[in-house]
Design goal:
This protein is mostly helical and about 150 residues long. The protein has 5 helices and no strands. It is elongated.
């Protein structure tokens, strides 16, 4: 008998855990989209006033390069459910929030971006709390009665 003969048993995921997996993968899709959009701007396919990297002011060059690299990196971490995925996403979210809230005179006024990052962060924390409470309830049920 080999290890391949025995059926593998994976722990069952609750509905909240399954929803959390899909939530992270949807956010990964958005991160990939934002990364591609930053790359489009950097390589010159963008038709706006800052349409090419060498024509951008230095502050846009720095922000554009950082976010063009970090957003796809965050997307891969979120998709793989790696522990570093949400951390890289948080770096991207803080960077864009600072860009559009602290320096709107340089980067423009786009309130929807910081608000969407805040909404995603709140949903992430809510999922983590719900999963933690579920695990606590489950561990209490499995304790022997005295």
């Amino acid at each position: 008998m080999t290890a391949f003969d025995e059926p593998t048993r994976f722990p069952r995921q609750s509905l909240v855990e399954t929803a959390f997996v899909w939530f992270q993968r949807v956010i990964a899709g958005y991160c990939l989209l934002f990364g591609v959009l930053y790359w489009i701007r950097l390589i010159g396919l963008y038709s706006g006033p800052l349409w090419r990297f060498d024509l951008m002011p230095v502050y846009w060059q720095v922000a554009g390069v950082v976010l063009a690299v970090f957003f796809p990196f965050a997307a891969s971490g979120l998709w793989m459910l790696a522990s570093w995925g949400p951390v890289i996403w948080a770096i991207c979210a803080v960077t864009e929030t600072v860009m559009y809230v602290v320096f709107p005179d340089l980067f423009g006024h786009r309130p929807i971006i910081p608000v969407s990052h805040l909404l995603v962060a709140v949903l992430y924390v809510a999922f983590r709390i719900a999963i933690h409470l579920e695990k606590v309830r489950e561990s209490r049920r499995s304790e022997p009665a005295q």
